[in-house]
């Protein structure tokens, strides 16, 4: 059997074969890390290389928000314009009747779906059928609370190696995606000191973990800490948004209850900060490297280099929650009672769809045609229902899928166009091209 480190998953490996390959993977990673430390000057150890040409283009959905820039934009994939349910996977609850399942699936280049299950395991599903390929149970519970609880962070995938990363009880794990074999684990933030999607895998393969006091970067093949960047000393300031990187990879943007901070990764010093009376809910770095979009109830565009305000757009009804970029300088905004599209250069309103006071859109996903797919909660008749809705680039509805639950999360778009949606009826729905039955 070949020991090739292919990021694709063409078939499930036998347990012994997978464990053997995982040991080889970790050993090779250790050699590369030692070589890198020996050959690089100290000033370069913490530098991240993220080519802008690769920042949003990927054959898979490798991060909770697609890429390190947080774009939620799949420029190579066309999502379903009509609808059928391809398959459904039901969560394995760790406590009977546990009502909330909060995970964003990631997808390998060959379409294997990886997500955190409610029984505190990482599970891999065959993308074409939903068949369970493997499960991985965290083996370090020393930092867990006395009561059991599910995996709290979303998984992320390495851009080239067959590795998936996730956090459980303030321990970061690396798992071989070919069969779920353990590769490494390391303690990170203090328990409950980071948000549920605060882990990002950078284009160079290192893992960035955002805590309430530091940003920690780890070697992805070994789990070795490369650098820890302090960004906050106040116990009253908490992380409120996923970490986002600039296309060049030299700046990390941090959203908190204090506002928005841009930190230079090489020097560990702030580039700029924007105090805000309301916490930063979402952050997206524009792929051209000139602008950063973020929300604090309204939508704000800041200069990526200086932090200077470029434009600000009020959200029409409730507060703005989610952001996604698309092609042709389009920016999509979701939140309470509305979904709107803006011109990302000037903030001009392109269109806005308003809904009832009981509607809440969690976030959006954008495909190559600028079709938008949103998940959330809306009012149908006398009942609240979880829903997924698709609109074209002009805001015209294409289809809607309702479930018997009070919320659906922003969808993940797989390489073959399957839309993956986690809803609070504890089901993961795979929605695919076909005649409508939603």
Description:
The protein is mainly β and 438 residues long. It has a single domain (15-432), classed as YVTN repeat-like/Quinoprotein amine dehydrogenase (Methylamine Dehydrogenase, Chain H), CATH 2.130.10. 6% of the residues lie in helices and 39% in strands. It contains one helix and 32 strands. Strand 20 and strand 21 form a beta hairpin. 49% of the residues are buried.
Give a brief description.
With 438 residues, the chain is mostly beta strands. It has a single domain (15-432), classed as YVTN repeat-like/Quinoprotein amine dehydrogenase (Methylamine Dehydrogenase, Chain H, 7 Propeller), CATH 2.130.10.
CATH superfamily grouping: YVTN repeat-like/Quinoprotein amine dehydrogenase
Average of pLDDT: 82
- Alpha-beta content class: mainly beta
Q: Helical content, roughly?
A: under 10%
Which features would summarize this protein structure in a list?
single chain; 438 residues; mainly beta; Methylamine Dehydrogenase, Chain H; four-stranded antiparallel β-sheet; 32 strands; 6% helix
């Amino acid at each position: 059997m070949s020991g090739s480190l292919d990021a694709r998953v063409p078939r499930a490996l036998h347990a012994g074969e997978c464990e053997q390959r995982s040991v080889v993977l970790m050993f090779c990673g250790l050699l590369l890390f030692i070589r890198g430390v020996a050959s690089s000057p100290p000033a370069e150890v913490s530098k991240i290389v993220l080519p802008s040409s690769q920042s949003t283009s990927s054959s898979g959905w490798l991060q909770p928000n697609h890429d390190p820039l947080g774009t939620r934009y799949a420029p190579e994939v066309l999502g379903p314009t009509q609808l059928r349910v391809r398959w459904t996977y039901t969560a394995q609850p760790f406590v009977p009747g546990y009502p909330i399942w909060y995970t964003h699936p990631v997808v390998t280049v060959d379409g294997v779906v990886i997500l955190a299950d409610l029984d505190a395991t990482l599970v891999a599903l065959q993308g074409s059928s939903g068949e369970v390929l493997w499960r991985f149970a965290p083996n370090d519970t020393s930092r867990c609370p006395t009561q059991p609880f599910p995996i709290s962070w979303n998984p992320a995938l390495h851009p080239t190696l067959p590795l998936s990363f996730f956090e459980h009880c303030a321990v970061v794990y690396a798992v071989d995606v070919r069969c779920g074999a353990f590769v490494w684990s390391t303690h990170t933030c203090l328990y409950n000191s980071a948000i549920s999607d605060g882990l990002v895998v950078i284009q160079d393969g290192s893992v960035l973990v955002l805590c309430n006091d530091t940003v920690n970067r780890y070697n992805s093949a070994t789990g070795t800490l490369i650098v820890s960047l302090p960004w906050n000393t106040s116990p009253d300031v908490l992380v409120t948004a996923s970490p986002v990187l600039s296309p060049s990879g030299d700046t990390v943007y941090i959203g908190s209850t204090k506002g928005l901070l841009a930190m230079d990764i090489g020097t560990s010093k702030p580039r700029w900060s924007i105090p805000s009376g309301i916490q930063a809910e979402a952050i997206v770095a524009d792929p051209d490297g000139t602008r950063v979009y973020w929300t604090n109830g309204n939508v704000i565009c800041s200069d990526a280099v200086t932090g200077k305000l470029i434009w600000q757009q009020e959200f029409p009804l409730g507060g703005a929650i989610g952001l996604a970029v698309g092609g042709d300088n389009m920016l999509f905004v979701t939140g309470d009672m509305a979904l709107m599209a803006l011109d990302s250069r000037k903030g001009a309103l392109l269109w806005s769809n308003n809904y009832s006071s009981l509607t809440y859109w969690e976030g959006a996903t954008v495909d190559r045609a600028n079709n938008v797919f949103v998940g959330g909660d809306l009012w149908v008749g006398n009942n609240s229902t979880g829903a997924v809705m698709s609109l074209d680039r002009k805001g015209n509805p294409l289809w809607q899928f309702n479930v018997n639950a009070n919320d659906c999360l922003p969808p993940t778009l797989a390489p073959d166009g399957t839309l993956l949606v986690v809803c609070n009826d504890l089901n993961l729905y795979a929605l695919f091209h076909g005649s409508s039955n939603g």
